[in-house]
Design goal:
- The protein is α+β, with helices and mostly antiparallel strands.
- Helix 2 runs antiparallel to helix 3, helix 2 packs parallel to helix 4 and helix 3 runs parallel beside helix 7.
- The longest helix is centred in the N-terminal third of the chain and has 28 residues.
- The protein has 17 helices and 13 strands.
């Protein structure tokens, strides 16, 4: 794969890159109008989506950092984006051009004052995995096989400017309006800033490993603060395949892995009141012994009680059957607002009752089958329904506490991973006995 010798770091450089991409998209639309003459509307639109998705991804993978991270987050929104975008953006989880060996050495010299070969007994300057914020190299020291994660230069300094560039797209996509919309973007900016703080990530990683190491069929790497810095993390090398690449015809194995994944998340949420809020396949490996390995704790979300309590009260089936209690919780979670019109109150009450009645089904079962195609098909249909709703587009889309951004992302990601595993007979409340 072609390597990168430099990354655009200034706001002007990064904005210029997106302007160039915008020009390509303009050409794609001209092609689209031409295609409509000789092709069906569906064929023409599919080609437009494929061309646009390719050009946007090619631009973002050169920018890396927050811009590419947003693409990674959007790739999980399978019910909002056209399939061409989901497929292309999902590449940001595993496959983007890595830094050149020269730039890797320069990064080590900056943070350690030494070349990597002066720190490790062996160091492969060609990365084995490059993603949105950093890339991973293999190394050895004192007989241990290690994974060394190096952050791309300039990533932490460009977060605010990157978000200002993608903000207009997000506002249009999610129909965000009003002066209080900044709280959502600030939440994303704060979390992205935390993800670039590798000292914090090592601390979080060690804390979660210590708290969750007792969960069956779950494994973690050890972390080495003494050979890590605020832009470089050293941890154990873990053998395994990415969860999305895992194949097994053995249903018992799939159930075991699904139970481990579910227990890991439920234990964090309910016992620790914080959660690994980046559940995409690139952060999980399956070991040769069919154990689940968690390898990235850069994005951790603390769940305050004022959000946790009403959120899980709404997950209770009885709450959905009590209109007065249900509405009270919607106000507590900022889904309903005091300045809503009667029409808005009725509309959003109905939307969230329909969404929650479906989405919370696993929480109201002792055992759940995450391979159920009907359940996930209905979630997809509901997402498509509201994505196309003209009535919703005319409403103020600012709905819910800022904490929804990462908690909902966590659950949508978790559900998708559980479905990818085709896990059955998952004990929902198993975490209580751990």
């Amino acid at each position: 794969m072609k390597t990168i010798d430099s990354i655009p770091t200034s706001k002007i450089q990064r904005a210029s890159k997106l302007v160039t991409t915008g020009a390509k998209i303009g050409v794609n639309y001209l092609k689209y109008y031409g295609d409509k003459i000789t092709k069906t509307e569906e064929e023409a639109k599919n080609r437009l989506n494929q061309n646009n998705a390719g050009d946007i991804y090619d631009s973002l993978k050169q920018l890396k950092g927050s811009a590419l991270k947003v693409a990674q987050m959007l790739s999980m929104e399978k019910n909002i984006l056209p399939q061409a975008y989901v497929e292309k953006f999902s590449l940001s989880q595993f496959s983007v051009p890595p830094l050149s060996p020269a730039l890797v050495t320069k990064t080590f010299k900056k943070y350690f004052g030494k070349n990597p070969n002066e720190i490790f007994d062996k160091f492969n300057s060609v990365s084995v995995n490059a993603a949105s914020i950093g890339q991973v190299h293999k190394a050895e020291k004192d007989g241990k096989r290690l994974a060394v994660k190096i952050q791309y230069p300039g990533v932490s300094d460009s977060i605010a400017s990157d978000l200002s560039l993608v903000k207009p797209i997000a506002i249009k996509m999610f129909n965000i309006r009003g002066k209080d919309s900044d709280k959502y973007f600030k939440e994303v900016e704060n979390k992205l800033s935390e993800e670039t703080n590798y000292v914090l990530e090592v601390e979080q990683s060690q804390a979660i490993v210590e708290a969750c190491k007792h969960i069956p069929n779950l494994k973690f790497p050890n972390y080495y603060p003494e050979i890590s810095s605020d832009r470089i993390i050293t941890m154990d090398w873990m053998d395994g395949v990415h969860l999305s690449e895992f194949t097994s015809e053995n249903q018992e194995t799939r159930n075991k892995l699904g139970q481990a994944l579910w227990d890991f998340y439920m234990f964090q949420i309910h016992k620790l009141k914080k959660v690994h809020a980046d559940p995409h396949p690139g952060n999980f490996l399956i070991s040769p012994k069919n154990e689940l390995i968690v390898i990235d704790f850069g994005c951790m979300k603390t769940i305050p009680d004022e959000f946790y309590v009403p959120y899980f009260e709404l997950a209770n089936e009885e709450s959905l059957q009590d209109p007065v209690f249900f509405e009270k919780k919607l106000f507590e979670l900022e889904i309903l607002r005091k300045d809503d019109s009667p029409e808005e109150l009725a509309f959003f009450r109905n939307i969230f009752h329909e969404l929650l009645s479906l989405f919370t089904q696993p929480f109201n079962k002792e055992v759940f089958d995450f391979s159920d195609e009907d359940f996930f098909g209905r979630i997809s249909e509901l997402g498509t329904k509201y994505a196309k709703s003209t009535e919703l587009k005319n409403m103020n889309g600012n709905r819910g506490s800022k904490h929804f951004i990462y908690i909902n992302r966590t659950f949508f990601g978790l559900y998708n991973l559980m479905h990818d595993l085709k896990a059955k007979d998952v004990k929902i409340n198993n975490f209580k006995s751990l």
